[in-house]
Amino acid sequence: MIPQKFLKHIESTDGLYEIRIKVGSDIYIVFCFFDKGRIVILFNGFQKKSQKTPKKEIDKALKFEQEYFNTKKGK
Fold it and tell me: What is the pTM of this model?
């Protein structure tokens, strides 16, 4: 199990996670989700400057997730 300080489920989403990366005193967030429980799909990231993850960043990540699955269905 990965500690929550590194990988955290985003509340009120269906499987969206944030990976936290600390470099010096800066924290970066990269969003990800699991495809079929085995493949980790990484996408948009940003530098975190406040305690709460901005809703616009979560919305962007959810859009990328939806695009991924829509593209996958089209194959």
Answer: 0.84
Helix (H, G, I), strand (E, B) or coil at 55: helix
Q: What is the largest CA-CA distance in the chain?
A: 43
Q: Whats the size of the chain, residue-wise?
A: 75
Residue-wise over 36-67: b if at least 16 C-beta within 10 A, else e?
A: eeeeeeeeebbebeeeebeeebbeebbeebee
Helices (H), the chain: 55-73
Distance CA 73, CA 23 (A): 37
42-65 per-position pLDDT tens digit: 988 999 888 888 999 999 999 999
Give the residues across from 8 on adjacent strands: 18
Give the start-end residues of each E strand in 1-75. 7-9, 17-23, 26-35, 39-48
